[in-house]
Amino acid sequence: MPKYDHKKIESKWKKSWEKNKIYKTNESSDKPKYYVLDMFPYPSGAGLHVGHPKGYIATDIVARQKMMQGYNVLHPMGWDAFGLPAENYALKNKVHPAEATAENIKVFKKQLGLLGFTYDWDREVNTTDPEYYKWTQWIFLQLFKKGLAFESYEPINWCPSCKTGLANEDLEDGKCERCGSVVEQKPLRQWVLKITDYAERLLNDIELLKEWPESIKEMQRNWIGKSEGAIVKFSVVSTTTTPSPSFERRGNVVTPPARGGVGLEAGGGWSNSFEVFTTRPDTLFGATYCVVAPENKMIDELRLKINNIDEVDAYLAQAKKKTTLERTELQKEKTGVELKGVKAVNPVNGEELPIFVADYVLGNYGTGAIMAVPAHDERDFEFAKKYGIRVANVVAKQIGDRINAAVRKVCVGAIIKNKNKYLALYDNITKEYRLPGGGVESNEDDVSALTREIGEETGYANYTIKEFLGEIEANFYALYKKENRIKPFRCYVVELINEDKKEVKGEDARFDVLWLKEEEIMEVFLKNPVDGGEHEMIKRVFGVEKVCFVDDGVAINSGFLNGLETKEAKEKMIKWLEEKGLGQRKIQYKLRDWVFSRQRYWGEPIPLVHCDKCAQRKPKILYIHGIYGSAEENWVPWFKKEMTERGYEVLTPNLSNSESEVNFGEWINELKKLPITQGDKLFIVGHSFGARFACKYIEENGWYVEKLIMVGPTGPSQNESSWKALGAVGCSEESIESVRRLNKEKIDLEKVNELVNATTLYLSDNDPYIPMDVVSDYVGLVLAVRKFHNKGHFNKSAGILELPEILGEFPEVSKLNLGWYPIPEKDLPLELPKVKNYEPTGTGESPLAGIDKWVNTLCPHCGGPAKRETNTMPQWAGSCWYYLAYAMKFGSKFEWNKEKINYWNPVDLYVGGAEHATRHLIYARFWHKFLFDIGVVNSVEPFTKLQNVGLILAEDGRKMSKRWNNVINPDDVVAEFGADSMRLYEMFMGPFDQACAWSTKGVIGCRRFLEKVWNLSLSVIPSDPRTSLVIPSEARADEGSPSRHDRDFSPTATGIRNDKNAKLEILLNQTIKKVGEDIQALHFNTAISQLMIFVNEASQSSVLSLQSFASFLQLLAPFAPHIAEELWAELGNKESIFKSAWPKHDPTKIQHSEITVVVQVNGKLRDEIIVPVDISEADVKAQALGTEKIQKWLEGKEPKKVIYVKGKLVSIVI
RNA sequence: GCCGCGAUGGCGGAAUUGGUAGACGCACACGACUCAAAAUCGUGCGGAGCAAUCCAUGAGAGUUCGAUUCUCUCUCGCGGCACCA
Fold first, then answer.
1. Are residues A410 and A430 in the same domain?
2. Measured CA to C1', what is the nucleotide nearest A332?
3. Which domain holds residue A850?
4. Which intervals carry biased composition (Basic and acidic residues) (predicted)?
């Protein structure tokens, strides 16, 4: 047999596998499915280095093992090919990005091919393929239709070098993640995805991700950044007496939105309130000033009331110039300017507080304004110190538990001063700080007690008592004595005369005497968790609150909150605010909406069209009243006024209310006369009978409705008592009969559901006509149900003349995307036009904007002239759903085949770099949840198990990079040592998820191992005939019977049966067990180590059977597929090793009949004994005690205790 | 600053329901084979000591018969977030 020639073997088997399509996967299989996925690569021009394939090797190993274990395995590969680098490369080299990408993919594919992966290339996907991005666009359109994509003009992060807007996730330290340029804030029209609507679910469902690394989950939690707190409303008063001139806008001010914050009074007055967000509503009494962010529009609205507006403007201009980077990184000192002439009124105590503008408050978090509580917030504290603002302490440290506290005798304590330092004692036993002092004995006065204590505890003898600070009550847990205490504590200031001291003896020697500076001693005591009165003493000596206290504690100086712990105080304050209408509970997230447009060429076109004419049309609300109802009663007039102010057109037809019966046809006819046309943003509110009728109307009309709100709707669940109640208020029999009739008439709820984007149902617990049960009448609709208390039938007889809750159902008009229409789905994909000039413009316009022929189109709605959206999607779009695409591929096309998608979904194992934690992995989870919501995938989460790949560093320990000239190319490694050696080495380097430096010597070590295997085969496989051992594919290794084989080389037949043989058999079984388990756990390094142990042992023992060697090859096959396949064939097998069944270990053969038990004396290893495996505890103990060595260690003493750990050790305690 | 993770021979690393620390590989040393070298095979390989034995898993303490594994404090390194109220 020839020497191990990797080149020959590897090319031979690659061809064979390809030809026989052994990796071809299909869904028609009765085997269980297993979906292993790699994060698909971005095909860069540089090609692969050895680090890239590490993850692919791991998935390949798992895929091959799973195949052998009888799973139907999907292990695909594709290309994430849109994005800036390809475009930049193309620009530089004057080739079209499509061509450059195709070229790069070719190189990548060839490189990957060298490593012998199991990809089913028939399922290859490429995000830049129009057939692929047809579906990226389709998903975007679904998001658009559900109101989750909206047009925004807020300033966004703009990279001046990449010339495009970026999402929050695309920044690193305020710099562009791609090119490192400092990002600017630029107001820009853009498309934004409302990922924040999913924030809560993205956060909660992290719980479901049991098999994700904890670190990634933590990063996602932090990124989502949930904070619970409250919104508090502060009113603003003017302190200037000069009457303001008639209101006039200055400068280029954008019309303020109606949302939150400051509103203008109708008469053109000035703003009179603003809102802040806080997580510490319990500290409201401690607010001593307020801060608004420079971006906050209230400054403009207040400007006529601000006396120092020039100074403020200067600050705003300066703040605007600062980049995000400067605002965060160069944050050394906080700056700000007071808005003179106005004051904020603290709602809880009416105090007038100064208002500042300062850029330490962010415009895009919370409300862009804060209440500042310097005593309990580090940042506010810093700012307050700088500007000399009052600090008001309203939270005290939580001290002992009063209930179980022992009242102690009067104590004295001292702060000892020496020059500018102060003395603190550090207790080495309890690890706490305290001040010298102690109890006053019955025969002492304060001074003698103090003198005694200072002497005992510090040793100092020469000092004068300077000042008595008064008595305080200290309530605390005394660690040293382990009890709760309350003590009257009398405080003195003492000054040292000189440092002469006596030795400290006895119990008091446990103290270290520390001399601390003012700041240090405050730090030590004000932050010390245990406080025996020191906190208060320090405050009295140094003046109040020079250190701010941010922890939870007990409310003080806080009116009705006094004495409550932080948690309770928060709750009580929120309740108070809500009752008074001065604020409400609020949950805030750090997660920002996803800026989804890029002003570049190489991305998916956004499939929307804008029609100026249609944009002029207001969104419409159709209100349908109930029987005997009208549009002039109940809350309708109020509602009409409110919504008209918000920019909606509210249609409230009075429908014919015949005394005898309602004529559906007539109602429909009357509604058809209303000025509503297809394509209008239409909202429908139906009350009572009007609600059910609304469903009927939608069904017949067939137009798309943004939202249907059903208030106390009639339904088949209404019963005799509701009819009676109706009769009682004078409803005629005929009318009741018509309601009954419509209730019975079938409404196609499924169709209604398709036409309506969202449905909400309002019910009241004391509605005389509508029982809560009507919910079940509408289960066909995906609806939100809101149950109200005590609102009757939502009419004037229940006293309902306003229904404030309903206002929240309607989005701001600016988020309704007026004038925007999706292109019809049948026209997808909207292909990226082929152009000559795809350079970014840098103006904020996409290069596509310059192609008139492409831009100008017709409005899908009115048929008039319209323009296409010219921004493209970000690189992350295509990767949000690619794992589904592999299951959707049919030839060169994709098809949303739910059955096939759901066969594979979710991904069982997903392997990739940790750098995607807060981008791809959040974006993909978001899209997946959305797809679940619209019913096109069957799981809430896309990836069951996630595994991070550790980086491979260069041999010098640095990152592999052209710059350092330390890149190792896999092609070279494969050529020199073979793909099998490289695969083996990359898995052997260390723990899979850990970074590790490349070592060529290490590769050689793995190569040597494979050569050993090769040589082992020489000694095992008889040279002739070659068809010596065939293991049928369905055979299990552990049940293979000798009769199935052409020849029998089993140990029994050859007559070799000895110790060595049994030993090797046990080792093989152990190896089968360990390798199987280790692959499962992705502990490849230890699996390989076990394989090495087996080969070392087998090489030396010369009793290896063919059968055992075959099992070994099966274990090796996932790691080193080529050599394993070659030797497998040498054994005479006609079918691929990957069609064979993964070996199973024999549980009776993993343990030797005799085991070594070690004997410890007092925890130290002293001897070992060899005993039968089934020895009894008594016997093993007796034997252990009996050995010569142990007898020597016992020195005749009786053992106190003998512990036996089964099969491992005996521990003797003497 | 906050959050998370980690620290074991000359190097990569193994061992955690607490039970023989250093598996496996690399490097190194010696020996065999060879005229010689490479390759290969064999032996050794944490430190100290002739040895018995002692010391050793970042440092210090604690719990335990017994700690790399659990608890506390600290140091260093890596990753993430960073004025998010």
1. yes
2. B83
3. 821-868
4. 1035-1049
Same domain, A747 and A691: yes
Report residue A1118 as tokens.
Answer: 């996932």
- Say if residues A955 and A1000 touch (Cβ distance below 8 Å): yes
User: Would you tell me how many other CB atoms lie within 10 Å of the CB of residue A316?
Assistant: 18
**Cα(A158)–Cα(A877) distance, rounded to whole angstroms?**
19
In chain A, the largest separation of any two C-alpha atoms, in whole Å, equals 115
Cα–Cα distance measured from residue A709 to residue A690, given in angstroms and rounded to the nearest whole number? 11
Q: Are residues A722 and A833 in the same domain?
A: no
* One domain, residues A803 and A654: yes
Q: What is the pLDDT of residues A524-575, one digit of tens each?
A: 776 555 566 777 777 767 655 456 778 888 787 888 988 788 899 999 999 9
Q: Report the amino acid identity of residue A428.
A: N
Three-class SS state of A1064: helix
Here the CATH number for the domain that contains residue A1182 is 3.10.20.590
In degrees and rounded to multiples of 5, residue A310 shows phi and psi of: -65, -45
Q: Residue A680: pLDDT above 90? A: no
Distance CA A697, CA A691 (A): 10
Which of the 339-368 residues on chain A come under 7 Å of nucleic strand B at their beta carbon?
A: 359-362, 365-366, 368
What would the mean pLDDT of A808-830 be, rounded to a whole number? 91
Please check whether residue A178 lies inside any domain of the structure. no
pLDDT in tens, A124-176: 999 999 999 999 999 999 999 888 999 988 888 888 888 888 888 888 777 88
pLDDT band for A265, please (50, 70, 90 cuts).
very low
Q: In this structure, what DSSP letter does residue A818 have?
A: T
Q: Are residues A504 and A641 in the same domain?
A: no
Closest CA to A131 of A823, A828, A789: A828
Residues of A 578-597 whose CB lies less than 7 Å from any atom of strand B: 588, 590
Considering the domain boundaries, does residue A996 fall inside one? Answer: no
The SS3 of residue A167 is coil
- Asked whether residue A848 falls in the same domain as residue A768, the answer is no
Token digits for A535? 């906190």
Instruction: Find the helix or strand (DSSP H, E) in which A424 lies.
Output: strand A421-427
Whether the per-residue pLDDT at A713 is higher than 50: the answer is yes
Nucleotides of B under 7 A from a protein CB: 3-5, 12-15, 19-21, 23-27, 39-42, 53-54, 65-67, 72-73, 78-85
**Which ipTM value was assigned to this complex?**
0.96
Q: Are residues A782 and A862 in the same domain?
A: no
**Does the C-beta of A1208 come within 7 A of strand B?**
yes
Q: Give the CATH number, domain containing residue A513.
A: 3.90.79.10
Nearest nt (C1') from A995 Cα: B78
The Cα-based distances of A45 to A76, A85, A100, A105, A1005 in angstroms read 22, 9, 8, 9, 32
Find the Cα–Cα–Cα–Cα dihedral A1099, A1101, A1106, A1109, rounded to 10°: -50
Q: Is residue A747 part of a domain?
A: yes
Q: Do residues A457 and A497 both lie within one domain?
A: yes
Gap from A1210 CA to B19 C1', Å: 9
- CATH code for the domain of A768: 3.40.50.1820
Whether any strand B atom is under 7 angstroms from the Cβ of A827: the reply reads no
